[in-house]
């Protein structure tokens, strides 16, 4: 058995730790593991940032302590910054801030705690309920920040790839830029977002067998551009995924979606692809019931029965939604309640 130490002796171990090197760091820099020694014996020290305070007084003090705020970019109602939580004027930034202003009630619901539900979206439910809902949302102008990027009005300095498609047609064009949540230097947490220029594909439901060549072309271009720009990475160190709906369709990271790991469908409906390092810790946006691997999507389209117009609109899709989301409150919960009522009547 190890020697018995007093509390004071145990606490004294930390200042006696002598650092040799950083051994590991999580994707957000919130947890690090250091290799070092104590009294010439090897030691590992793992440090993790404490949780933010939750009482109002402490939160007001936290906000008042923010210093050295530096804007990193802005697009429509979204703004992102670096800041320091330490009072020293020379303190290096230790916080990344995302501001949505002005925000909507739907934003508030999305970022509030909520339960989740698994739902199965049949082709009929999509046609009769979900697609009309998506169309209404698109018509509200919620994709302005996407059009700003695609049409060259904002964030052009961040675009690392722009391609007009395998046939040189504007309709097959796409571009790629860093995800808002990536620090643009830590390769283990690489996260990029690819946005397609065409406006006829809103989600996975719009993908058809006839899109396979285009999807393969995009995948090849995205992977090769990524490893060329970041030579420390190899092609088999990348993962490409798509979300089942909204601006989550081909996954490389969406500006609005980047603002947080969501328990809800994205608020925006436009096809995009996420390109991430396979080492990136899988949060809610990569979980089963949220993300679909791009290669698996392509394979499924290739093997699906039917001609070039056959596609994912003909399949059941199972995913999860937040209980505060409109997809749950306006579509799936009423359908569930109607089904229960029908069972009572029968």
Task: Please specify the SSE layout and strand pairing.
Blueprint: H1 7-11, H2 13-16, E1 18-25, E2 31-38, E3 41-48, H3 56-65, E4 67-75, E5 78-84, E6 95-100, H4 105-111, E7 116-121, H5 123-139, H6 144-150, E8 161-163, E9 174-178, E10 191-196, H7 212-229, E11 238-243, H8 255-258, E12 272-277, E13 291-293, H9 294-303, E14 317-322, H10 326-345
Antiparallel strand pairs: 1-2, 2-3, 4-5, 5-6, 7-14, 8-9, 9-10, 10-12, 11-12, 11-13
Derived structural class: alpha+beta
* Number of strand elements: 14
* Rg on CA atoms, Å: 23 Å
- In which range does the helix fraction lie? 25-40%
Assembly type:
single chain
Mean pLDDT: 81
Termini gap:
69 Å
H/E element order: HHEEEHEEEHEHHEEEHEHEEHEH
Total of helices: 10
Sheet of most strands: 6 strands, antiparallel
Which segments are poorly predicted (pLDDT under 50) over 5 or more consecutive residues?
Answer: 246-266
What fraction strand? 25-35%
Q: What form results from the Cα inertia axes?
A: globular
Strand order of the largest sheet: 8-9-10-12-11-13
Descriptive report:
The chain has helices at 7-11, 13-16, 56-65, 105-111, 123-139, 144-150, 212-229, 255-258, 294-303, 326-345, and strands at residues 18-25, 31-38, 41-48, 67-75, 78-84, 95-100, 116-121, 161-163, 174-178, 191-196, 238-243, 272-277, 291-293, 317-322. It is an alpha+beta fold. The strands form 4 sheets. It has a 6-stranded antiparallel beta sheet. A 3-stranded antiparallel beta sheet has the order 1-2-3. The chain has a 3-stranded antiparallel beta sheet with strand order 4-5-6. It is globular. Residues 246-266 have low confidence and may be disordered.
